[in-house]
Amino acid sequence: MDKIYIGNTNGKGYSMIENTVLIVDDEEIILESLTQYLSERGFNVIGVESLSAARKVLLEKSIDLVLLDIKLPDGIGLELLNDVAKMEEKPIVIVMTAYGTVDTAVSAMKKGVYDFIQKPFRTKDIELIIRLALDTKKLDKELKLLVKTQAEKFGITSIIGQSKKIEEIFKIIKKVASSGANSVLILGESGTGKELIAKALHYESKRAIWPFVAINCSAIPSNLLESELYGHEKGAFTDAKERKIGLFEKAHKGTLFLDEIGDMSYDLQTKLLRTLEERKIRRIGGTSDISIDIQLIAATNQDLGRLVEEGKFRKDLYYRLKVIEINVPPLRERKEDIIPLAKYFMHQYNKKLGKHFVGIEKPAEEALLNYSYPGNVRELKNIIEKILILEDDEYIKLEYLPQEVKQEDSKRSGEIESVENVYEIGLENYIKKKEMQFILDALKKCNGNKSEAAKLLKIDRSTLRYKIKLYEIE
Question: Three-state DSSP class for 5?
Fold first, then answer.
C-alpha cells in the first residue's frame, strides 16, 4: 500500500496562504523533508510515492501545485501531465529529477510544465520557485476573471437589440472574432454604436487579454495625429522633450480602433497603408523599425467610396480596410430595438440617479417608435437621461418627451390613421368624413357664420349650405 505524507499549515510566523501542494517522489527522505519544510511555511502538503497514488489524490483533492519526479516505481512521472491536461482547474506542475536532460526538459515544457529542477536542490530554492509559480497562477486567474468581466461589459451582450439587422451583426462579430481578421471597417451614421461593435469584436476574440486602444481621428489635428499613432523620439521636433510611445505600440497584440478615419489626412493615410502591409512602424525621429501585431478596426460615418472618387481617400487603403465590412443600421431602420434600448437606458439611469421608473406608458412608447432619431442611439439615450434627471415618477409619460418627438409622433399618427381608415371604410366614405370634419371646424372657427365659413373653405355660400344639408349638420 502507498504511504501518504500529510503536512498541514502550521507555519512558524509564516502567513497562511491556503495552497495545497502535492509532492510525487519515491525517495522517502525527500518526501519527509519537503513535507515538513513546506508545511512549516504555510502550505498544505500531501506527499505520495507513486504515479497511481498521485492520480488518486488529483481525483479526490483540490491541488494547486504538483512537485513531480520523473522516475517512479510504476511509470514515468511525465505521464501525469496527461491527467492534468484533462482537469478543469489545472494545478501548476514543477518537475524535479536527478536524470534531467535538455531533451527531457524541453519535452516537459512543451506539455505545460512551469519549471524543471535538477536534484540535488536546496529546499529554500524550491520554496522560492513554488511561491513564484503560485503567484503566477493567481495572476492568471485574476486576468481570466478580468477578461470575463470585460467581455460581459463590452462583448456581444453589451449590445442591446433584437432586430434581424442586429442579429446579423452579432453573427458577423462572432465569425470575425474567431477568425483572427486583422482589418475591419465599420460603417454607420453618427450615434449608431460603432465603437460598441469595435469593442465587441475585440473582447470576443483571443486578443481580449491585450489592450483595446481607441482614438478619434477627427478630434486631433493632422500634425499631432501622426505623433499620437506612431510616437516620437526625444528631440524629433521642437516640443519633443521626451520619448513618446505611440498608440500602435500601446495596442501591440491587442486592437487599435481608429474612429472617423474618413477625416485622416491623405499623407497619413499613405503611412497607415504601409504600416498595415508591413506590420511595422517607426517612431518619428527614430532610426529602426518596430514590429507590431494588432487588429486594426476603422470606423466612419462618411461614404468612403465617394471620398475615393473625390480624391480625398486612398483607394488602396479603402480596399485594404474593407476586407471585413460591417454596416451598422440607423435606429430608424430597426424599430424593434427602440423600446428595449429605452428600457435599458431607463434601468441604467435608475441606478445612477437613484430613481424608481418601472416602465414606459403606451402613448410615450408609440411616440418613441414614431420618431426618426437623427442622432440615433445616442439621441435616444440622451432623451431618457434627461427625463430621469428632471422627472420623479414611476412611468415615462408622453408629456415628458421632447417637443420634436411629440410633433413627429402627431404627424405620423395622423398619416397612419388616414391610411388605415381609407383601407377600412373605402376612399369615398373617407373623403366624405374628412369633408364634414373640415366644415364643422370652419363653422366653429367662424362662430356659426356660414358666409365667413365659406370664405375660409374657399367655396361658394350655396355650396356650403348644400353640404350642411347633405351631412345633416346642425
Answer: strand
